[in-house]
Design brief:
The protein has 342 residues and is of the alpha+beta class. The protein folds into 2 domains: 147 residues, 2-Layer Sandwich (D-amino Acid Aminotransferase, Chain A, domain 1); 161 residues, Alpha-Beta Barrel (D-amino Acid Aminotransferase, Chain A, domain 2), CATH 3.20.10.10. Helices cover 23% and strands 26% of the residues. Strands 1, 2, 3, 4, 5, 6, 7 and 16 form an 8-stranded antiparallel sheet that branches. The radius of gyration is 20 Å and the shape is globular. It binds pyridoxal-5'-phosphate.
Length: 342
């Protein structure tokens, strides 16, 4: 693996795609299995304007990270979970079913070939973006017959620019992100287009992001546009239960395990009422991109609510620390989550 790092300003990485050396590209027709693919130079691809993904949004993706760790190794964090989720997303979106062997080979090959773009230990991480979409031409609404799977990567820094400040989020029932029995629990591209308008409204009002409520019961919370939510009330950590419209986050699952097994908190996956969240001791969001980020204020259309004392909560920081320490191999990994590539 190439260990001599690229000349990049590692201290000022944002969350934007930077070009790297190569990307994976594979093809598959419906009814077949994912077998073929190879690394090609990083760059643009061409598509027919009638490609199914451009007209009917038949596309899915994953988001994961590679780290250069304290043990001077390149590792992935729980890639089996991303592979399993992509398998589920392919099935839900009528795309040939992804398989773990193919997914892992494509991801590992792409990361290894671009290892010199992985930020040095302590400077950030490499975001890995597997994407899969229908490319055959369609005018009638139907699933494609030909598909492409790609993996590209980019060195990244923090997702939220606020850095040291807790988030200020906007909660409204004016928009829903996803509906029960819809595709909210698949990592389908359409879920993200649905969140663009609400997200930009929240940002234009000075908030960092949106909190979505449940489409059928607007008294309970769901998640954010790209992160799951947790609410601490006393010694009890609550998170919205999975059930169709929420993404089954890899970080969500890791936070639940860390909170239960390492911090002895009681964790409940349940319906979380808006009022419970607004009067909680701590609120945080979590995801691959955002890691664990504390929420200091939540505004509704009526009022601004300060969470706890408005700063990062103590348990939030403890959970974040443990998660990052495991990901960066600064402490032992008691759960076998780390997947070394070198
Ligand atoms: C809608 C949504 N919820 C939650 C998450 C967090 O999932 P994960 O922890 O697997 O990154 C994401 C990830 O980007 C997301 O897009």
């Amino acid at each position: 693996m190439k260990q001599n790092k690229q000349k990049i300003d590692w201290d000022n990485l944002g969350f934007n795609p930077l070009p790297t050396r190569s990307m994976w590209k594979g093809e598959c027709v419906s009814g077949d299995d994912w077998i073929n693919g190879k690394l090609i130079p990083y760059g643009e691809i061409s598509l027919s304007p009638a490609a199914c993904v451009l007209n009917y949004g038949q596309g899915i993706f994953e988001g994961m990270k590679a780290y250069h760790t304290a043990k001077d190794r390149i590792v992935l964090f729980r890639p089996d979970k991303n592979s399993a989720r992509m398998e589920k997303s392919t099935e839900r979106m009528c795309i040939p079913k992804m398989n773990e062997k193919y997914f892992m080979n494509a991801v590992s090959a792409t990361v290894k070939d671009n290892a010199d773009f992985i930020p040095p230990f302590g400077k950030g991480s490499m975001y890995i973006r597997p994407i899969c979409f229908g490319v055959s031409k369609a005018i009638a609404v139907q699933a494609a017959t030909e598909y492409v799977f790609m993996v590209f990567t980019s060195p990244v820094g923090p997702y939220f620019k606020v850095g040291a400040k807790p988030l200020h989020l906007y909660l409204t029932d004016k928009y829903h992100r996803a509906a029960p029995k819809g595709i909210g629990n698949a990592k389908a591209i359409g879920n993200y287009s649905a969140s663009l308008y609400p997200g930009s409204e929240a940002k234009s009002k000075g908030f960092n992001d949106m909190i979505y409520v449940h489409a059928k019961n607007e008294k309970i919370i769901e998640e954010m546009g790209a992160a799951n939510l947790f609410v601490l009330c006393g010694d009890e950590l609550l998170t919205p239960k999975l059930g169709g419209s929420i993404l089954d986050g890899v970080t969500r699952d890791s936070v639940i395990t860390i909170a239960r097994d390492l911090l002895n908190l009681t964790v409940r996956e349940t319906d979380v009422e808006i009022n419970t969240m607004l009067s909680a001791d701590e609120v945080f969001c979590c995801g691959t991109a955002v890691t664990v980020t504390g929420v200091g204020r939540i505004s509704t259309d009526k009022k601004e609510h300060v969470i706890g004392d408005g700063n990062f909560g103590e348990k939030t920081l403890q959970i974040k620390k443990k998660l990052l320490q495991i990901q960066k191999e600064e402490i032992d990994d008691p759960f076998e989550w780390i997947h070394p590539l070198s």
